[in-house]
Amino acid sequence: MRVVIIGGGIGGLALALALRREGFEPLVCERAPALLEVGAAIAVWPNAFRVLERLGLGETLLARAGRIRSVRWLGREGREYNHFSFPETGAPAVALHRADLQGALLRALPPESVHLGKTFAGFVEEGEEVRARFEDGAEVACDVLVGADGLHSRVRAQLLDNGGPAYRGYTIWRGVARLEHETLRAGVASEIYGRGRRFGVGPVGLGRTGWWATANEPEAAAESASEHAPKLLRLFEGWCAPVQELIEATPSESILRNAAYDRPAAARWGEERVTLLGDAVHPMTPNLGQGGCVAVEDAAVLARCLAKYKDTHVALRVYESRRRTRAAAVAAYSRRYGAFGQWHTPAMVNLRARLLSSVPESVGHRVLSLVFDYDAYAVAV
Fold first, then answer.
1. Which of 196, 194, 201, 202 is nearest to 238 (CA)?
2. Which of 3.90.226.10, 3.90.550.10, 3.50.50.60, 3.90.79.10 would CATH assign to domain 3-46+99-165+265-344+361-372?
3. Strands 41-44 and 94-97
4. Smallest Cα–Cα separation from 10: which of 63, 62, 48, 58?
5. In the sheet that 66-67 helps form, which strands lie side by side, from edge to edge?
6. Beta-carbon count within 10 A of 67 CB
7. I want to staple 280 with a disulfide (CB 3.0 to 4.6 A). Which of 152, 276, 286, 373 is the partner?
8. Helix, coil or strand: residue 258
């Protein structure tokens, strides 16, 4: 079976590796001319780590990642609202630089299976095959075409044609810094809350600390790379340590800035010999750190379906049916948690502090288990 994957991000590369483990030889087509070491921290929660470990990357990732064993919620002045350990799931929760994860996936694939500089232009279904067309005039025939080309997926645009993603009212900045500070605790991730602003901190391995910040602002707000750090220092002036220290330790040009987008759950993920994966079909706000993780889950289930069913139509529709509810639920959790985190009026900020302070550890464990306990290799296909 000839499988072509459009997009060489985390989801696309994970699918290629999962398919190779099932005996396929997929082709990944990525529009970037090179997969550079750019990006910020990415969480690999237990639900995704199980898959990556099954694909042979567990030890490689642990060697470069920071373990996360507990989380703290604090107010901007540093008062701790709550602190609880993560539930035991049989798989670790880690964070690492996105380039480390992408590089590990890429090195696990034969070089000839990833074609760079291939900008997807569209597809045509002809009889028993699909022809993927690229802007350089090239065409590739395949039996299955998978759109793993992200938030602004061209495969999705042709397949579903249902408009752009929805802006959720806030911007996210991400950075990675090397900083020694007494407030940075080993194995602890922190989320700090203010009025319409949040700041997150966590270990990403190799002596590095990953951080992210959010602020409510209009969708069209413009900002150059050189403005990122100065703006953040103003937005988070007076916040508890190590907020200002982390921003100051991060070169402004290395800070990533994105608007918070997602989409309503899609009733249809594909048709005939074409389907979608990851952000192309279920983009998520970053509040739970699950966008890449759920794409990795998609990859495992899709590979298993293609290996089980000789009929590609059946394989793709089974994959979509098994993943639709799970992906929609995680995206909804993330959207709601983000809206809660961005509350900005004094009354809402005070209410949020009381709510966060009142969550028992047992309740936190049950909520996290809904996400963390999922095993993509245990799902019946």
1. 194
2. 3.50.50.60
3. antiparallel
4. 48
5. 41-44, 94-97, 66-67
6. 14
7. 276
8. strand
DSSP state of 371: H
Q: What is the tens place of the pLDDT at every residue in 231-253?
A: 999 999 999 999 999 999 999 99
Run of H or E residues at 357: helix 346-358
Q: Locate tokens 């759920």: which residue?
A: 294
Alpha-helical (H) ranges within 276-343 are 291-308, 312-341
8 Å CB contact between 97 and 105 = no
Task: Give backbone dihedrals phi and psi of 249, rounded to 5 degrees, phi first.
Answer: -85, 0
pLDDT of residue 37: 66
Q: For residues 365 and 347, what is the distance between their CA atoms, to the nearest angstrom? A: 28
Q: According to the model, what pLDDT value does residue 143 have? A: 98
Angle between helical axes of 291-308 and 312-341 (0-180°, round to 10): 170
Q: Rounded to an integer, what distance in angstroms lies between the CA atom of residue 191 and that of residue 197?
A: 11
Residue type, 45: W
How do strand 129-134 and strand 139-142 relate by DSSP bridges?
antiparallel
At 341, list the tokens: 């985190």
Phi–psi pair at 111, nearest 5 degrees: -55, -35
- Strand, helix or coil at 87? coil
Could you give the CA distance from residue 63 to residue 96 in angstroms, rounded to a whole number? 10
Q: What is the per-residue pLDDT for 39?
A: 72
Query: CB count, 10 Å around CB of 97?
Result: 23
Cα atoms in the Cβ-side hemisphere of radius 13 Å centred on 123: 32
Number of Cβ within a 10 Å radius of residue 202: 23
pLDDT of amino acid 312: 96
Torsion of CA 174, 178, 180, 185, to 10 degrees: 50
Task: For residue 227, give the amino acid letter.
Answer: E
Alpha-carbon dihedral angle through residues 326, 330, 332, 333, given to the nearest 10 degrees: 140
**279 Cβ neighbours under 8 A, 6+ residues apart:** 9, 11, 150, 151, 153, 291, 295
Q: What is the DSSP letter of 271?
A: B
* Distances in whole angstroms, Cα of residue 61 to Cα of each of 65, 250, 320: 6, 24, 29
What is the dihedral sign for C-alpha 308, 311, 316, 317? negative
